Amino acid sequence: MSESHRTNSLKYELKALVAFLERAVNLFKRYIGWEVVALTYANINVITIGLIGVAAGDPQRALYLTIGAILWGYLSITFQDMAETISWERWEGTIEYTLMAPISRVTHLAGSCFSTVMYGLVRTGIILLVVSQFLNINLSKANFLSAAVILAISSLPFLGLGLVAAVLPLLSPEKGTQATHIFQALLMLVSGVYYEVTVLPAWVQSFSVLSPATYTLKAMRLSLLEGAGLYELRGYITILLVLGLIFLPLGYMGFRLGENYARRTGKLSRSG
Amino acid sequence: MTPAVKVNQVCKRFVNWHKKAVNGNPLHRVFSFLRWEKKDFYAVNRVSFEIKEGEIFGILGANGSGKSTLIRLISTLLIPDGGSIEIFGRNSICEELAIRRMINRVSVEASFFKKLSAWENLSYAARLYGYSPSEVRTKLMEIFEFLELSEEKLAEPIENYSRGMQQKVAIARALFTTPSLLLLDEPTTGLDPKSKRQVQALVRRMNQEKGITGILTTHDMEEAELLCNRLVIMKDGVIIAEGTPEQLKKEAAAGNGHSSSSISLEEVFLQLAEEGCAA
Lengths: 272, 279
Fold this sequence. Notes:
The structure holds 2 protein chains of 2 kinds.
Chain A: H1 3-30, H2 32-55, H3 59-83, H4 85-92, H5 95-99, H6 105-135, H7 144-166, H8 168-171, H9 176-191, H10 202-208, H11 212-225, H12 234-265
Chain B: E1 5-19, H1 26-30, E2 36-51, E3 56-61, H2 67-74, E4 82-87, E5 90-91, H3 96-102, E6 103-106, H4 118-128, H5 133-147, H6 163-175, E7 181-185, H7 193-210, E8 213-218, H8 221-227, E9 230-235, E10 238-243, H9 245-256, H10 265-278
Parallel strand pairs in B: 3-8, 3-9, 6-7, 7-8
Antiparallel strand pairs in B: 1-2, 1-4, 4-5, 9-10
């Protein structure tokens, strides 16, 4: 491939990448009513969970639970958004149009991932602001730089898992979406969102080791509750990076396999 | 000269699972939810044809005859089970990205993000095809003017548009990229007579001025006769007739002892469909 052709291809793919971001912003604006409802619900959900700790007279417990709820909100939105990439476009009727666009699948999925992370970060920022005001949370010890790095790195394996789940509606248009919800619920169970994973039965704990949320939650709590710096969190950062390096390519390969399966069996179109 | 489209012995088979009929056996009745049987059928069976560059090629057939499956195979949305498809010399399996850069498609469903406006949908499409929205604005305005779509209306969510208007926007979306091959899968279904004529005129104009090659599936025989240089008629996934509209009419008329001017393409279609049934 010549240098100029490669540059042109790159420009072409970058323009396509912007398409997904712009589309996400436009859809956010058009569905603003739904967004307000979802955000209100998410805020109240986090507050009520935090209040369990407040009621127990344990401010650290309140913070522990609040961090779990906020972080799970972010991770599940990241996962869900990616997992519903296919089912949602199938519902809109645009899936065939998007999949036959002259862009590489990497660009398509990277564009979707990027807009998902942006959306998740904005949403989480708003929730954090509202909840910290309501619960009067003391974050004087928190290390926000570490928290931000953990949040960014933990997005990688979750996007990968989301891509794996996005394949399910390609395999089964009717049952695939429900299957992604089961997957998400299982992740919540094994990852210690509101408790230490040590309280789980031993055989369930072995699944916790595989969940990136387990490490994200631990690292995030250490950075926000105890002010742990990046050096102290290097073990968690390494694990999350390794899981990202495993799950993202795995998700991409899974998506490609699922797409080819759907193209062979005719399951892309809504009529199936 | 390389043909624009070369479809060679293409097959596409789909599998459907059906619940087995419940018989008198009580065990079968209890476990009926476990008793499934596989039924497969060929949606497209050993189909071959070639299309020259600049031609508009029609694919006619009753519902379920395999027209849309064939369009999906050519547009790389389906992978053939047998045979091969080449678009301007590129293989549809190995060079799908190169093919996608040369084609665009209008399907019977307009396929838009319903809450987004026409502009927002078109801006998304423009970026997917490597343009910035400002680059394609002039071209789009020209198409909108031709199709009598007012600019003010384009800012409204597309769900507020009539079916005809949505289809016009879909046609504009397919044409602004000036594809080398335009796939038109029943593009005028549901349009009023005036809109239908506007769309047909636009397709003809793009074909004549830009040399766009087209594949058109339609149930409208008048439209096929008006737009297509050559056409095939499909039945149960198989091509049962091929030629120019005139040739097909002549052949049918010769069989009936009439002159070709006294027979319409619709009559040819119905005659062939009946012959297929009798066979």
